């Protein structure tokens, strides 16, 4: 009897080609379009209807059962409201990470399994590896420990966005394109006659297509103009349209004239001031340690386990190079701190993790994710704290 797979189909080339590969591998495939967002903004049309039409056309072409599942109310509450609250605090969240954790690999996964699916699948660039030994998961379900692995195409690897998916979901998820490169996927899609083979990738907000984040936020947050000041002198260099729109390290969109570029180095939300500097070595742009909160460690790992892992690495941004951790992980998540160094107590984040680097690294914005790896294995990660 064929194994049944519910495939998340977005209307893009990756999920469409995933459908082809799953059929070729002998699975009984049902395509699911997740309707997460459908609201238009002034002058900006949400592309959901076009994406749905593309997904449906591929399903018809491949003779797949196809359904639309409406998660819009949950998405607004769990992803959009979270994102807006984070920006109001002056942080820079990553909605893709939260969407994957709570929508695609929670709501979609739970509903698919309840409907009789043996597996779910998506078009993400990632891989899994099953160690074969079965054990009782904390959920009560007997599963084989399954590792989340980086994709073969390092330029497209999406494990940075997937690190918070549950162990149970990982064990029953297939990533059909994870062993392919993006050019290979597009070439195979063209060979199979899929119209979406040449479809342009959406590079905007994860749920609103090409709409920029700033344009989206304007519709939902009350932002006021304020001063842009030089960090070193306090001199007023210009004005902004809302400090919440700016991210530490940002250099585009400041409109402060020619010469060397300015970089945002800090924000004062209480006074609605954005501070900038031309100094690339400004202290606020770099870090030798990073504090993480809201940790999600995979396959039962504890923070105590992390210090035992050789060649521990962290990715601070999607597609950024992996950075070597100095193997000294300071933790207060459980019990005493775990470190081989003498550290001040105020460097410990209660309920979280402090990781140290061998040298200075470019500081990621608070609210972003830092994702830990050992070789190709994703170990989990956390949210960058203040």
Structure notes:
The protein is of the alpha+beta class and 386 residues long. It is 24% helix and 28% strand. The chain is built from 9 helices and 19 strands. The chain has a 6-stranded antiparallel β-barrel with strand order 14-17-16-15-18-19. A 5-stranded parallel sheet has the order 3-2-1-4-9, with helices on both faces. Helix 1 crosses helix 7 and helix 3 runs antiparallel to helix 4. The chain is globular, with a radius of gyration of 22 Å. The termini are far apart. Mean pLDDT is 87; it is low at 134-139 and 333-350.
Key attributes of the depicted protein:
alpha+beta; 6-stranded antiparallel barrel; 5-stranded parallel β-sheet; 9 helices; 19 strands; 28% strand
How many strand units? 19
Strand order of the largest sheet: 14-17-16-15-18-19
Order of helices and strands: EHEHEHHEEEEEHHEHHEEEEEHEEEEE
Q: Major sheet, described briefly?
A: 6 strands, antiparallel, barrel
Helix coverage percent? 10-25%
Radius of gyration: 22 Å
β content, as a range? 25-35%
Structural class: alpha+beta
Topology at a glance:
Layout (H helix, E strand, L loop, with lengths): L3 E5 L4 H12 L3 E8 L12 H15 L2 E6 L1 H17 L6 H20 L4 E3 L4 E5 L4 E2 L5 E2 L2 E5 L8 H4 L4 H5 L1 E2 L7 H10 L21 H6 L7 E5 L5 E5 L22 E6 L4 E5 L8 E12 L5 H4 L5 E4 L7 E9 L21 E10 L6 E6 L2 E8 L2
Parallel strand pairs: 1-2, 1-4, 2-3, 4-9, 10-13
Antiparallel strand pairs: 5-8, 6-7, 8-19, 10-11, 12-13, 14-17, 14-19, 15-16, 15-18, 16-17, 18-19
Compact overview of the structure:
With 386 residues, the protein is of the alpha+beta class. The protein contains nine helices and 19 strands.
